[in-house]
Amino acid sequence: METILGTPSKTGSIYKVENGYLGLPSMNVPGVDAAIGDSLTHPNGSVMSSGFFELKASEPLIYTYECDEMKVVIKGEFILTDRVTGEVTHAKERDVLFFPKGSEITFETPDYGLGFFTAHGSMS
């Protein structure tokens, strides 16, 4: 088990990470206040990774997915635009999203958004 952010523990076959959303590293995109980081990567040899994505009101973030990913909005909301079709959706707390590999998405938020993601591979 590799933990990038947070405090890990293991009880039997159960892996747990506390505070994996704290101290997320910046995505370093000029004008965009966004951060992302893995909390748990490849537990027990798995190909799965998970972590948190945070966006504050700023310039839009344009992101291309390098692997299939699912995201749950934990706090706030995201405005998502599919850059290929131009279609827009609003995702609020507890909404579940799926982004296929290769998706080009514009992320915006009116104030703040925090999402938990799980992906087939590492996001770091």
List keywords for this structure.
124 residues, mainly beta, Jelly Rolls, eight-stranded antiparallel β-sheet, two-stranded antiparallel ribbon, 10 strands, globular, Ethanolamine utilization protein, RmlC-like_jellyroll
Give the percentage of residues in beta strands.
over 45%
What is the CATH topology assignment? Jelly Rolls
Please write the CATH class name. Mainly Beta
Superfamily (CATH H level) name: Jelly Rolls
Would you give an account of this structure?
The chain starts with 6 loop residues before the first strand and ends with a strand. It is built from no helices and 10 strands. The strands form 2 sheets. Strands 3, 4, 5, 6, 7, 8, 9 and 10 form an 8-stranded antiparallel beta sheet that branches. The chain has a single domain (23-36, 44-120), classed as Jelly Rolls, CATH 2.60.120.10. The chain is mainly β. It has strands at residues 7-11, 14-18, 34-41, 48-56, 61-64, 69-82, 88-92, 96-99, 104-108, 112-120. 0% of the residues lie in helices and 55% in strands. It is globular and about 45 Å long.
